[in-house]
Amino acid sequence: METNDSHGRFEASVNIFVDPAQKAQVIDALSRLESIEAIYDVKGEFDIVSIVSASCIEEFRNILQKQIMKIKGVKSTITCVVLKAHKRPKSALRNICLR
Question: What per-residue confidence (pLDDT) applies to 85?
Answer without folding.
Answer: 83
